[in-house]
Amino acid sequence: MIPVPNPIDEPKEFDKDCRKKGAAWLLANPDKSRPTDFWSAFKPALAQGFSDRCALGAMWISDGTVDHFVSCHEDMALAYEWSNYRYMAGWLNSSKSKKKAADLLDPFLVGAGWFEILLPSLQLALTDEVPQRFRKRAENMLTKLPIRDDERLLRTRREWLRMYEDDELSLEGLRKKAPLIAAAVEKRNIKQQIVALSHEQVRNAYESACSAGRDAVREQTRLNGRRGEDGHRRQMIIWTAEGRADAVVTLIALQLATPRGGDFHELSMGVVDASGDIAFQGARQAAASLTDSLGVQFHAGDDHVLRRDD
Q1: DSSP letters for 267-295
Q2: What is the pLDDT along the chain (310 residues), one digit of tens a residue?
Q3: How far apart are CA 198 and CA 301, in angstroms?
C-alpha cells in the first residue's frame, strides 16, 4: 500500500448519473440488499486517480474494479458516494467484501514509507513509520487480507522485478508501475554500495596499518642499527578479541583476519627483516593504526619467524 491523492476529483457527471440515480434507487428499493451498479461508468476516472495502480496491491493493473471501502453490507447509504470508492483488483476487492471498514486501513490514510517490500522474499511488511494509532489496522491488512505473501501477488512482484533486472524496464518505469518494488530495489542498491564502500575502507585501513608497521620497523632499525640478527625474517602479527565487530567481520570476509578460536582473530601485517623486539614494535604501531581507523581494539602479538628462503 502506498499514499494515494485524497480527495480524487469527482467527475462532473457523477452527481447526476450516479449519486442522484442511486439515491432514487435506494428510495424505491429499501428492502434490496445489493444496489444497482451506477458507479462502473466512472471507473476510468477512479483508475486515473490511483494512477492505474491497485489500492491494495500497489501495482499497475490493466482492469480493476470499483471497491466500496465501507461495504454496501455495512452502510448502503455510501453505495453511491464518490469518496467511498477505491480502485482495486477484482479478487482483492472480493477478499475484503465482508470485512468491517473500521478494522482496515483506508488506502487514503496510508503515509509514505508505511509499507515495504522485502527482498528477496518479495513479502509485504510494515515499517516503523506507521503511527501507533494506525498500527493495528495496518497489521490487519497483512493478517486479514491476502496482500502480504499471496502467490498471486508474489508472482506479479517477481515479474516486475525480473523486468527491471533484465533491463526491460528502467528504475523510473518500475517506480511508476510498482513503487514499493522500486523502493526495495533502491534500498538494496544503497546497502550494496555501503557494503562495498565499507570493504574498501577496511582494506585501506589495513594497508595503511601495514605501512605504519613497516615504517616503524625501518625507523627503529635506522636508530638501533639492528636488522635480522639471527638470519630470519619475521611476520608482524596483531590480534583482536572483538571477533563480532563489523570491521572484524569485514576483515574476515576480505581474508585478512584468521579465526583462532572464540572471538580471537589474528592478522598478519607484513614480513620484515628485523630483530624480534623491533618487529614487535612494528606490530604495535600497526595495531595502534588499525585501532584508530576501525574503532576496534587490536594488540601486537608474537611474531612468526620465517626462514630466509621462505
Answers
A1: EEEEEE-S-HHHHHHHHHHHHHHHHHHHS
A2: 788 888 899 999 999 999 999 999 999 998 888 899 999 999 999 999 999 999 999 999 999 999 999 999 899 999 999 999 999 999 999 998 788 999 999 999 999 999 999 999 999 999 999 999 999 999 999 999 999 999 999 999 999 999 999 999 999 999 999 999 999 999 888 777 666 667 888 999 999 999 999 999 999 888 876 655 555 788 899 999 988 888 888 898 899 998 888 888 999 999 988 888 888 999 999 999 999 988 889 999 876 555 444 4
A3: 26
> Is the peptide bond prior to 120 cis by the omega test (within 30 degrees of 0)?
yes
Radius of gyration of the chain (CA): 33
**What is the rounded distance in angstroms from the CA atom of residue 83 to the CA atom of residue 146?**
24
Q: How far apart (Å, rounded) are the C-alpha atoms in residues 19 and 154?
A: 37
User: What is the number of other CB atoms lying within 10 angstroms of the CB of residue 234?
Assistant: 25
